Structure formats: structure tokens, C-alpha cells
Amino acid sequence: MASPYYISARALDMLQTLSEELGQNFYVEAVAEGYDINLFGGALDRVDYLSYCDLLEKCAEKWNEPELGRIMAQRQSLELLGYLSLVPQLGLSLRDTIEIITQSFDIYTNALVLSLAEGDGHCATLSFSFLPSQGVGLQEKLSSLFYLLHIHESLLGSREHVIELHCPDRACLSSLKSLSLPINHDAPCFGYAFDAEILDRKIGVNDPAQAKPVIDMLGKLRASAGVSTAEQVSRQIWQHAEFSDVEIGRISRQLGLEPRSLQRRLANECTSFSKLFDCARRDRAMHLLEHSTMSLNSIADCLGFSEQSTLSRAVKRWTGRSPKDLRR
Fold this sequence. Notes:
Distance between the termini: 31 Å
Oligomer: single chain
Largest sheet: 5 strands, mixed
Low-confidence stretches: none
Number of domains: 3
Structural class: alpha+beta
Number of helices: 15
Strand order of the largest sheet: 4-5-8-6-7
């Protein structure tokens, strides 16, 4: 059964091209995963995201390439993002460029949520979360993180402004050592911190006449995707690195709605804000408990729980087990 998550078929095309460089037969693995090879070469628009993740893991194993995700990311260009690759050419600030890409990233995939956060100091953070609670393997995690860094380097010409990497999954750490950057193991999301002073830097050549058509096109593409209100709310929740400041009034404003209007729309889709928030808390809690080294107190703070005991009760309700049991 297909998952509700998709990724652009260009990701498969990239994997096929890489297989040729490595002297491997991509089609053998693709057919084994259930793909119809007659649909390649531009006939596919989107593919199931979790199926793609499985294929990436199997290719890494069969081709004896334990860092296949990293290798893929280093060969990917901005053109992989389709229309989103036009945004850096509009002459906007780095801040506006990143904001447009993060808000429209579901044109490429709806399985990742990107978020830009500016702190009180001189540090900004670009992070991402995986919406599927299970099924995202090591290779896709590495590919996404390295590709995010590659986008940064493509926009600015170097990674010199990157301060540290954020990696909540211990399995990825050995592959990140080659970057010679500090690694924050206790971050709640994947991503990296960088010098906030560069956010005002202009990217590309300023051409107002070109900017509006591209932004309008991105809006039409998002609208044509038929994204439900519940999915929009979930994505807005996940864009917060920490859930302590998530509440319906804030999410409503981000979507341009009054809280009551948002509640009615969600009710029409047989759900509610509290249910969506609880699901997001559960999925992030499971990931942090199973993959990160964060303390239980830190996880409770990240999820917006008043104390560790409240987290423990929530985990017990979700799984029937305690947080400590899940970490054994």
C-alpha cells in the first residue's frame, strides 16, 4: 500500500545516473522494489517516498556503498528541485530565498519540512524534519542533510559561514566527520547553524520583472497539489524546531486564517488541531527517544511538556511503555 508521502521522480533519475557512474545496474534494484522501468525517462512525475527510501537503502547495500546518500547529494544540483531552482536567480536576500524554498518545498516532496529560525544572537538555523514516523533510512537522512549543505554552498559559493551541524541520529555521525565541522548531537532536528549576518546578502541578479511570475507559478503548483488543511497545519507545526511555542493562534496566523475558521476546516476533515499536535509530538518523541542522545528533560522541553513526568505519561499513553524502556 502506497504511503501519503511523495518525492519528485527526478530523485529516481538522479539515482539511475549515479548507478551508471558506479558501474551498477539500477534497473535490477528498481524492478525488485516494484517500479515499472517503462515509466522512466520523464513519464513519472512523483513516486512514493517510502518506497524510494527503501530503494536507496537496498542500492547502498547491493552496491557496497555505505555512504550512497552522501555521494548522491554531492552530485545533485539545484535543478533537482524543478521550479524551485529558479528562486536563487531572483535577486532576493538569502533570508527571502530560503523562506520561499521552505514554504514551497512540497513541490519537490511533502515528506520533509524545512524551517529557518533566527535566534537572539548571531546564529540562524536551517533545519528539516521527516514527516513519516518510520521508514526513512540512513541513506535518505544523509542525502537530505548533505543536499541541504550543498544548496547552501550553491547559494553562497562556500560553507565558510556554517557554524555547526545538527544531527539527532547517532547512526549518521561517522559519515559527517569528513566535513570537519562541530556536530550537535542534542539538536531536535537535522540541519545546521550558520552566521545570521549573511541572511541579508543578495542572491543572484535583482530582476523584479522576473520575480513575480516565478513566485506566482510556485503558488499555482502548490495549489494544484490539493494539499488538505490538516496537512498544511501539520507542516506548520513541524516547522518549529521546538514545540513549546506551538499554539493554534500562531498556526492560524501563519496560514492566514482566524482560529475558529481553522477549527471548522479541520472539523470538516474529521480532525482537530489538538489531534494533529498530539501526533506531531508523538512522532518527534519516538524519533528522539530511539535515535538521539538527548536527555529526557531536554526532550520534554523540546516537545513543550512542562516536566519530564508529563512526557513519561504521554509516551505511556502512545505506546504502553515508558521512555526508558524505549531506549533499551
